[in-house]
Amino acid sequence: MDKLRNSLKIKRLLEKSLAHCQQGQFLEAKLIFEELLRIVPNHPQVLTNLGTIEIQLGDIERGISYIKKSIEVDQKQPKAISNLANGLLEIEKFEEALQYYNLALKLDPNFVDAYYNKARALKFLQKYDEAILNYQQAIKLNPQYSKAIVNLGFLYNELKEYDKALEQYNLALNINSHSAETLYNRGIVYENLNEFKKALEDYNHAIELNPDFPDALFNKAILELSQENYEDGWKFYQARWVAKKLSYLQTSKPELLDFDVNQKNILIWSEQGIGDQILFSALLQEAFTVSNNFILSIDRRLISIYQRSFKKFSNVTFISSKELLNETAYDFHLPIGNLGKFFRNSVEDFKKQPLNYLIFDEEKSMSLKKTFKNSKKFICGIAWKSKNEEIGPDKSLSLKQLLPILKLPNIDFIDLQYGDTKEEKKSLYDEYGIEIKTIDEIDNFNDFDGLSSLINSCDFVITSSNVTAHLSGSLGKKTYLIAPYSVGKIWYWHENRNVSLWYPSINIYRQESNKSWHAPIENIISDLKDYYGRKN
Q: Which of 51, 133, 309, 440 could form an SS bridge with 359, CB 3.0 to 4.6 Å?
């Protein structure tokens, strides 16, 4: 009788705990499973469910230990084994996770979720072909499995197989046409194909379905800005804080929403990368002319240049962005990226754009020019890589890819690239006899003041989309910018314009497809040869 009552109690508690799980009440379910574990310490279902809940609640290691104990009791539990693999996937133990997914699939060859999650593990391991096969198997077993279809589309997009990505997203939208996430991801693919109208339609539709969708709002902003629809773009640019996980200033002081204030102290603070800080600094002269006092918080490497460049303004102080500032020092604050919505709302507004607004150290520049005094060749500063973790590889070149330019006669090339370039330059010299000269006294990464003088001492600059491009453009130096076709191209390099609105001294040379740098390099060579003719 006691055994029967115990059995009924266990059954009742299991039903109750599972009901809690179905309602998302995991803490309540956990308490019941812990009570069950005291009654039946080696019950496989209790151990598995308790472990799964622990993983759900974030205690992954503890959850894994419970499920492993369950499998020790009963090795023929494909669902438990798959849940264990899911926990290992969460803590990035991908190889071990694969072993358990394979074991689960051996026990149940039709286990759809195991194929799906195994594909995710394979993707993390960059085993893309195997990942695709496992996504496809999951979809074959369940043609309505939209999660697998969307993830397969996402993988194809990362691999730049855009037609295949579109096919998957269209399939997913046939299953659920109201998925804001799928519309957003399809919009990314259209944007990567430079089909901007279709991309914008998808972003707008996603926002209609989910008005608080930060990624869709931000991508719409960037697309509008790249199309030079500035007023519309700035409206949605505020979504960058959530979409890009940027750190917003922690302060009780209000953000400046209108420049129609007087005799106030305004903190303008840096955000995003140093390139963005330089870009939006073109608008500082217009900001500083109003009757207020300013504190500009910027990357410390820019301070000496900015002090020289804006010395005619007595109402501004420059501090490092690392410096902690007491709130009593200012009345309002303004992220530097918000300057755009005040001063650049149309192409017409760019008539006020200065040719140059940063000023190099003349004495330093003259000293550097003496280094090249014996050269009868043109001096070309060159930078070819971006260190941006997200899109850097898509907008970077190798020196070997630049060989058609580097082989041109009558040019000496000066290294403006930040980071360690010694091995790549040595390899170029050993194989081709081409020297990229290093100016040892300038630290291209830490000494931006020295780098700006070095840039000025060059006749012209050739660069990929990186900090060097921003510095060169802000100095008004003649610059040839090599930009990617779509992936990696940043909004301020425009879509249909070959001379930058933001930096009038920069000419833009774009890829004609995502896979080749041939066209921009050949176009630069053609223009350089024309430039030689006019100079000589």
A: 309
CB proximity list for 180: less than 8 A, separation 6 or greater: 205, 206, 207, 209, 210, 213, 216
Distance separating alpha carbons of residues 116 and 123, to the nearest angstrom: 11
With a CB cutoff of 8 Å and minimum separation 6, the contacts of 373 are none
Sign of torsion, CA 20 24 28 32?
Answer: positive
CATH class of the domain defined by 362-535:
alpha beta
d(CA 135, CA 4): 46
**Gyration radius of the chain's alpha carbons:** 29
pLDDT digits (tens, 9 = 90+) for 352-394: 999 999 999 999 999 888 887 677 789 999 999 988 777 878 8
Burial category of 155 from C-beta neighbours within 10 Å (exposed 0-12, middle 13-18, buried 19 and up): buried
Coil, helix or strand for 409? coil
Q: How many CB atoms lie within 10 A of CB 284?
A: 21
Q: Would you state the pLDDT for residue 17? A: 67
| Residues ≥6 apart with Cβ < 8 Å to 488 | 386, 391, 392, 393, 394, 395, 465
Residue position matching structure tokens 């006020």: 352
Residue 45 has pLDDT above 80, yes or no: no
Contact 197, 219 (CB under 8 A): no
Other C-beta atoms lying within 10 Å of the C-beta of residue 4: 8
Instruction: Count CB neighbours of 9 within 10 A.
Output: 13
Round to whole Å and give the CA distance between 225 and 495. 10
Residue 342: pLDDT above 90? yes
Distance (Å, whole) CA 83 – CA 89? 10
Q: Are 434 and 406 in contact (CB under 8 A)?
A: yes
| CB-count burial class (<10 Å; 0-12, 13-18, 19+) for 436 | buried
**pTM of the predicted protein model:** 0.88
Helices 2-22, 26-39: axis angle to 10 degrees equals 160
Tokens standing for residue 76: 């023929």
Instruction: Give the Cα separation of 116 and 516 in Å (integer).
Output: 34
CATH number of 32-208: 1.25.40.10
- 483 — phi, psi (to 5°)? -120, 150
Residue 234: closest CA among 218, 250, 248, 247: 218
Put residue 245 in one of left, alpha, beta given phi > 0 → left and psi -120 to 50 → alpha.
Answer: left
Mean per-residue pLDDT, 113-128 = 96
